[in-house]
Design a protein that fits this description.
The chain is 35% helix and 26% strand. The protein has a single domain, classed as Rossmann fold, CATH 3.40.50.150. The longest helix is centred in the first third of the chain and has 13 residues. Helix 1 packs parallel to helix 2 and helix 4 runs parallel beside helix 5. The structure holds S-adenosylmethionine.
Length: 215
């Protein structure tokens, strides 16, 4: 189980600042413990759906909703399920986004060689999942490629901007990836990497994507 961390909290804070209307229909995609679904329900969203591919995450999200008496629908599923439940007014997502060498496949955070195995399909799907006038908030690391996410979203016809950022020290997973990230930096010099001895940090960003009322 992915325990809520700095990225979860940064996204929850961004949700609180985003001006979500009280009657919003919200999707928390990649819900884990359900922290963002709980944030949305506690902030007054009319309808909150929490999706995760891991059965244990779904159970945990249900328990967290039930113990707080919050009307959250937690379901097992990926983007295919989200498509069937769309459109949403608001989507929040903290997907797996850690670049992973071959063989590393923890679905809580590992996301392929460039960290984009879940982020890319999500970016492609967002314009179809949102109601006109709706918006999405996605959190990921600078190592996942912030400009790539912004470009993909804009290509899909949504307005995309960074609305929150925080520099945080590497946790145990990222510390274990230092060598791999250094190798990748050689391939993608555009990706920043501050690896001063013993001072590894990453910038975590929240990206907001707004679907215009009219296209
Ligand atoms: C980084 S955790 C985030 C958990 C929680 N939202 C948070 O912020 O603390 C990512 C979650 O995405 C789930 N996940 C991974 N791939 C997925 C996919 N393709 N569709 C839905 N959920 C997925 C994992 O099981 C994991 O619970």
């Amino acid at each position: 189980m992915y325990r809520p961390q700095e990225d979860s909290r940064l996204l929850a804070h961004a949700y609180g600042c985003a001006g979500v209307p009280p009657d919003a229909k919200v999707l928390d995609f990649c819900t884990g413990t359900g922290i963002l679904a709980v944030t949305a329900a506690e902030a007054g969203a009319k309808s909150v759906t929490a999706l995760d591919i891991a059965p244990r995450a779904v159970l945990t999200a249900r328990l967290n909703a039930w113990s707080r008496r919050l009307p959250i629908r937690a379901l097992r599923g990926d983007l295919g399920v989200a498509r069937g439940l769309a459109p949403f007014d608001v989507i929040v997502s903290n997907p797996p986004y850690v670049p992973a060498p071959t063989g590393a496949r923890d679905p809580r955070w590992d996301a392929g060689p460039d960290g984009r195995a879940v982020v890319d399909p999500l970016c492609r799907e967002i314009p179809n999942l949102l109601r006109p006038g709706g918006f999405a908030l996605i959190v990921h690391s600078e190592f996942t490629g912030v400009d790539t996410t912004l470009d993909m979203l804009r290509e899909g016809g949504v307005k995309a901007t960074v609305v929150a950022r925080e520099r945080i020290p590497f946790g145990p997973v990222m510390r274990g990836r230092t060598g791999y990230l250094m190798e990748r930096r050689t391939e993608s010099p555009a990706v920043a990497f501050d690896s001063c001895a013993g001072n590894e940090t990453e910038e975590v960003v929240v990206i907001r994507a707004d679907r215009p009322e009219f296209r």
